[in-house]
Design a protein that fits this description.
Blueprint: H1 4-31, H2 33-41, H3 46-76, H4 87-111, H5 129-146, H6 148-168, H7 174-182, H8 187-198, H9 205-236, H10 241-247, H11 250-305
Helix pairs in contact: 1-2, 1-3, 1-4, 3-4, 3-7, 3-8, 4-6, 5-6, 6-11, 7-9, 8-9, 9-11
Transmembrane segments: 6-29, 92-113, 147-169, 175-196, 208-230, 250-269
Membrane topology: Multi-pass membrane protein
Protein name: Protein FAM57A
């Protein structure tokens, strides 16, 4: 168990670490020569730079969580229910502030103008209740229209998961928590897809390779591993796979469904995006084939005439 002082220290460090990483990346683009050159060369707006910064911090968090998850799963594999590992609670307290930070960072990005975020000083003079109400209205619109599933996941599911990890589960199920951490292993590929898009590299081989890895790692780490964990638990408890769900506590069944359902939804969005890309490229290929066929036909006619 971690002492109260240790818990407070970890939570405070997490509350400082993730926003500080974001602010450091923002300062890199705004105040360093290299950052300014990258911004100018790639024609990045302030919004693009902020979005890239959010995705890089998300990648860093995903790597940390994945490493912790791999450590826990490797040590608790033999007894998925009762084997414990200190890394579970350590990262839970350190990583918990990330979800609030990420939701606020995504909202911040949504408020930046597409070109240059000027007139920001005007907001400093609107400290009245009307300004706060307008900001709250903007946030509600952001949640509803932009990234509702992600924000709800961050502001609702993440706190519930945190309470389960730290309080309600007792000393059982560290392996399951390790699997939850390991689900983040696909996040870097999702983040780099956005980053490469901002850098105008959609037609590059790197973008296509990253997309392929994203489509492979996402269902593997976020869907397949969850069902494998249930199967592993069923084997160790000498239960059938379907019997495990029937005998599962309603609260744990709800947690399972609440954690797995968004993954199917996000993967559906990925596949839909891939289908759109393939459909958009099909007419281009046919347009390229038509001139080639025309040239070949003309050559044939000329040969016949000769």
């Amino acid at each position: 168990m971690i002492s109260q002082a240790g818990v407070a220290t970890l939570f405070l460090l997490g509350s400082i670490f993730f926003p500080l990483c974001f602010l450091s990346l923002q300062a890199f683009y705004r105040k360093t020569k290299i950052g300014s050159e990258i911004k100018k060369k790639q024609q990045l707006s302030d919004k693009d730079c902020a979005d890239i910064s959010v995705k890089l911090v998300s990648t860093l968090q995903a790597i940390l969580a994945s490493v912790c998850g791999a450590i826990v799963c490797s040590k608790c594999y033999d007894d998925v229910l009762y084997c414990t590992h200190p890394v579970v609670l350590t990262y839970a307290w350190f990583g918990a502030p990330y979800f609030l930070y990420d939701a606020m960072a995504m909202f911040y990005v949504s408020t930046i103008a597409d070109k240059h975020y000027k007139n920001i000083n005007k907001l400093k003079h609107k400290r009245n209740s009307k300004g706060l109400f307008a900001m709250g209205k903007k946030f509600c619109t952001f949640v509803y229209k932009s990234s509702s599933v992600i924000v709800i996941h961050h502001l609702l599911m993440a706190p519930c998961g945190f309470l389960i990890i730290t309080y309600f589960r007792g000393v059982r199920g560290d392996f399951f928590i390790g699997v939850m951490y390991l689900m983040e292993a696909s996040t870097p590929f999702v983040s780099f897809r956005v980053i490469l898009s901002k850098l105008q590299m959609k037609s590059s081989l790197l973008y296509k390779l990253n997309g392929a890895l994203m489509l492979i790692t996402f269902p593997f780490f976020r869907i397949a591993t969850v069902f494998y964990t249930v199967s592993l638990y069923a084997d160790q408890q000498q239960l059938g796979f379907t019997e495990t769900f029937c005998t599962m506590h309603p609260g744990w069944l709800f947690v399972f469904l609440a954690s797995i359902a968004p993954q199917f939804y996000w993967y559906y969005l990925m596949l839909s995006g891939l289908a759109k890309i393939l459909r958009s490229e099909a007419p281009k290929n046919s347009e390229l084939e038509e001139p080639a066929q025309t040239v070949a036909t003309n050559k044939t006619h000329n040969n016949l005439r000769e």
